[in-house]
Each structure stands twice: as structure tokens, then as C-alpha cells.
Amino acid sequence: MRRPAEAGRVGRILRAGGAARRRPVAAGVAVPALAAALLCAPPAGAELRIAGHGFGHGVGLAQWGAYGFAREQGRDHRWILRHYYPGTTLQRVPGRRIRVVLKRAGSAKVCSAVRVRDAHGRAVRLLPGRGYRAVPWRADGLSFIDATTGRRRYRLYAPVRVTGGASTCLRGRAFNERSNRSYRGVLELRRDGADVLVVNDVALRHYLYGVVPAEMPASWPAAALRAQAVAARSYALGSLRPGAPWDVLPDQSAQVYGGVEEEQPRTQAAVRATDPLALFYGGAVAVTYFSSSSGGRTAAVEEGFPGSEPLPYLRSVPDPFDRLSPHHDWSVRLTDRAARRRLGDMLDGGLVSLRVVARGPTGRALRVRVTGTEGADDVPAATIQARLGLRSAWFTVKENPRRPTGR
Questions:
Q1: Fewer CB within 10 Å, N or C, the chain?
Q2: Closest CA to 101 of 243, 216, 244
Q3: Are both 113 and 174 inside the same structural domain?
Q4: Which of 267, 286, 318 is the last residue of a domain?
């Protein structure tokens, strides 16, 4: 789980083609092209050296820190949760279901399915051991084609609910970047224009069976796994959208959900041991962001997600056991050519420099000045992080001293 709002990611992942549109960045003060060529062109060996801390946004529970508190100090999951979400309380919640959008494509192939029911109440039993491909029919229907014989078997009105035994499999690659996985609950096939949208309607406990091991290694201490289970349950409850066709994506824009093949006995035990507990603050389910590694101190929500309103339980706290993380400190080197390619339309002309011009209270970068041979602009540090593939926004740019600035 990575972002405070998934609307932008949702739009990109469900848009035909899935490609994000890039907005041109306005240029700053122009530099004459000839002068730029003579004064600012960096030598062939120039490079950017970037040093940083942590992996992810650093807000809320830090997974490596939770691992350290459990392993090194024997802290239980309740203590860990109080540390990362101060002021919250654990409360019981009723059993719920969650709808996870898995795939959008021109057709959807399912297997291990035994029954389908359409929007008009028509129920059909499927042949055992057969796979079926659902393709658009009319404006609001689906044709089910026997994948073995190629014959059309049924015409049904969407949404169509597909059920199997303990689970039903979905062929092809899903939004969670897993292929040919099985999912508990129901696979609901919807029409989305000319495409078929696959939504997994599943009990919250079974959803968490596929989330916790995808977010945290099952070999980690039970206390850390239980803290992760509570955080994941709370986040899921806060993501329910009753008026929408689905609630969450199965990837890092929400929580990674791997289905049945991802499940592990130790993480299932952690889910059961904490069921049905969730974190609350002020009478509402808490927003339980989490990330891999804080770099040594977590970020308040308004620092980790600039523009967010402060929340009393998402404030910066020390995270001493982050030192166990392989990403506690990191560094990368990029040639000018690689940096120019990744910055793309954000850069005006050739690369002159990158400089952090605003930082948050923990030292995380907030804004970065991108200076090119034809102008400069200040952009959000999160944008630079994404473009350059950095592990976090807590970074410092160290330029090669041989790079001329042209100024």
C-alpha cells in the first residue's frame, strides 16, 4: 500500500492502453542555445550520484522496523501498532466483503468454475474441468465460449457471477502482475465499454490471506505478521466504496493481493489471530498506511504525501530497527544520458543540475529544481523519485564535480 488516494493510478491502469499521459513542464529562464551548447554541455563521463534512506513513503507502519521490534525486543503486535499509529485503539468489526478489480481486457478466461448467475437471475452449471472465455455480447452481455471446443455455450447478461469450489482461477496476467492465479470467493465479470472487467468479490478474511504474505515475508516473527494483518484489515475497511463497482486494486496503489497461490500457513494464522480487529481513531477506522523501510524515522502524513491534512496518529516517530533493512541507506548512479531519458519532458534542453530546494521535517525532499540548458523548473520530489526509480523521497543529489554549471 503506497498512496493516500488511488484515483490517478486507477485512471491510468483502467484506461485503454494503460499509459500515463505526461504533462509538459513549463520552462524557466531561457539560456541561448549556442551558449548552452558551448558552456553547459556536460562531459561524456558526467553523472548523478544520489544517496538516500528507506524504501517507500515512510508513513505509518514501517515493515522492517516492525520486524526489528518483534525480533530484537519481543514486542507484540499491539505494542507495534501503538508505536506506529499512536492514539489509535483496537476494536472489533463485523464480517465484511471486499471487491478487488483484477483485470480489464477484451475477454476474460476462467477455469475451475462450476456455476454462473447473470444479472437477470439465470443460473447455469458449467461443465467440470473446462475453461471458459467470456467475450462481449450486445451492449450489456457476455458470451461464454468453451475454451476446449471453441463453441459458444451461453449468452448471459452482465454482471455475471462465476463461482467454483474453494476458488476459481483467472487466466492471463492481472493488475497484481500475477498470471494464472486462483481466487477465493466470486469472480464477477462486468462490461466496461467494449471490454470485460473482472472483479473478485471475496470475504475480507480470505482477501487478507492473499495480502499479508504479498506484503510481508511469512518467515518473519508472528508479532510483525499480526501487526501487518491489522494494518491491512484496517486499510481495506477504509477503502470500501459501496456505490462503486469495485473497492480496491490488487497492486501497490492499494495493497498487493496475490490470491490463493500467495497464501502461507503462518500469515493465515496471523490473520485469524487478529480477526476481527481493526484500528480506530475518533470513532472511525484509521487510515493505516504502511511501507517497507522508513530510513530510521517515519514521516508524518503531510510530509510523506504533501498536500494531505495532518492526522494525529500519522505523525513522525523514531524507527531504530530500520537499520536491519537492506534499504536503510542506499545509493544510485545515473549517467547524464540515463537521467535525461528518465526525466523526459520534465527537462528543458540538456541536463545541467538537479537540486533539492525544499525538505520536510525529517529531511525528505519535497521539491527539486530541475535545471536544463534551456530553463529550470521546481517539481515535486515524488515526481523525481518516480521518474528516476528512486526507493524513496529521502535523498540527496551529489553531482560529479567535473560537471560545468554554465553559470
A1: C
A2: 244
A3: yes
A4: 318
User: Would you say 69 and 321 are in contact if contact means Cβ atoms under 8 Å apart?
Assistant: yes
Residue 148: name the closest of 183, 120, 109, 192 by CA. 109
CB under 8 Å to 407, separation ≥6 — which residues?
Answer: none
Cα distance between residue 7 and residue 254, in whole Å: 11
Helix ranges (H only) for 258-371 are: 265-274, 301-304, 336-343
H helices of 288-345, in order, are 301-304, 336-343
- Rounded to the nearest integer, the mean pLDDT of the chain is 89
Same domain? 69 vs 145: no
Examine the fold and report which residue of 205, 232, 251 is the final residue of a domain before the chain moves on: 205
Distance between CA 311 and CA 59 in Å, rounded?
11
pLDDT at 14: 53
Q: Are strands 89-92 and 108-117 parallel, antiparallel or unpaired?
A: unpaired
Give the CA-trace dihedral at 270, 275, 281, 282, to 10 degrees. Answer: -170
Using DSSP's 3-state secondary structure scheme, residue 350 falls into coil
Assign 167 a pLDDT band (cuts: 50, 70, 90): very high
Same domain, 386 and 300: no
What is the model's pTM? Answer: 0.88
Q: Which residue is it, cell 470513532?
A: 283
Q: Is the pLDDT of residue 30 over 90?
A: no
Instruction: Cis check for the bond before 380: say yes or no (omega within 30 of 0).
Output: no
DSSP 3-state helix, strand, coil percentages of the chain (rounded to 5)?
Answer: 25, 35, 40
Q: What is the pLDDT of residues 54-81, one digit of tens each?
A: 999 999 999 999 999 999 999 999 999 9
Residue 290 burial (10 A CB sphere; 0-12, 13-18, 19+): buried
